[in-house]
Amino acid sequence: MLNYFMPVHFFLGRDVLKRNGELMLTLGKKPLLVTGKNSAKKCGALDDVISVLNLSGMHYTHFDEVKENPDLETVVKGAKLLQQTECDFIIAIGGGSPLDAGKAISALAKNDLLPYELYESAKIKDAYKIVAVPTTAGTGSELTPYSVITNTEINQKAGFGSSLLYPALSYIDAKYTLTLSKEITRDTSIDALSHLLEGLYSDVRHSFFYPLIFQGIKLIYQFLPLCLEELDNLEYRVKLMHASMLGGYIISQCGTTLQHSLGYPLTTELGLSHGLANGVVMKIVMEKFYPSVSTELDSMFKYLKIGKNDFYSWLDMLGIKFEHDLDDLFIKSKSYEVLNSRNMAKNPCKIELEEIQSLYKNLSKS
Ligand code: NAP
Ligand code: FE
Questions:
Q1: pLDDT of residue 366
Q2: Range of the domain at 272
Q3: Domain end: 125, 141, 176, which one?
Q4: Which atom of ligand 1 is nearest to the CA of 144?
């Protein structure tokens, strides 16, 4: 069975904000702009949004304190600012971190909730409208109903989701990704690749999506190495943005799995970027799931005209490798956290605590 819902109105292409920006003005009277410290400005997206607002004389408040892997404290601060300055919709500009923070701020400011209650998604009963302007090609958050926020009190990264948190509008223009560094380009593309693969792993996977998944994976397989050699090539950037959108679209319907659950502690404890954390567990997760989804994976490799080992060599060629040792304390405490994370509900087979521990042990050895 397929249960399909995708309410995002998006514009994709060159200068879409300039050409269609007036539509976001219909969502409210005063937006809260949610960004990180530098990149929204550096890549031109913030200026594009502000010029649309200025043209219509619409006032706004700017919250620029979102850091990578945003935490609950930041969300609380943003929600208070929204209320104090009487904003009534959100324009989130940036990578997944500002986009997710914008969604969480929207939910917290609109509902009478304690911050950690956001993780109980069913308690989100209302939300301010969200506009998303992605500046990385990775998370696909501009098309998903999810927000991933770190609870620093317990140093745990976890997601929540609500159909109310789908952006009402997304403006997707690959030109904003031209300023990404080589490392962030690679890591964010690997996050998109994870999302696409997880569309094949998910227990609600559906052949309806496979052509799009295969296409997205092929775009990354072909164009990521080229883009890493020529970071300012807009054509390659467009291809990677398409792949990222396909990844976001796929997880919006199929969810994520063990792969994301295993990666989160590598970010919170060791500081790996989100994409790299997914990348270093990609092989071990593929090996684990292969017996359950061999038909799907074999079709994908056939489409790419490569074998599984070629795919693993490609990951090695990109320099995706794990260079840490995981001690017993990490393995014990974090395996338990992984087992209880919400993404685990979507695995294609049952995964026991001991299997998670042994995956982490093998990762240390690889
Ligand atoms: P990010 O954390 O948003 O940004 C990473 C870095 O890239 C930051 O230093 C940022 O700078 C910089 N940056 C962003 N855009 C740039 C540009 N155009 N040019 C130059 N630098 C730029 O990275 P991300 O990988 O996109 O997002 C990761 C987060 O999204 C994680 O928390 C992850 O868990 C979450 N995620 C969410 C979903 C979902 O469905 N909601 C899915 C997967 C992952 P500034 O700090 O100055 O902005
Ligand atoms: Fe992700």
A1: 63
A2: 180-365
A3: 176
A4: 40
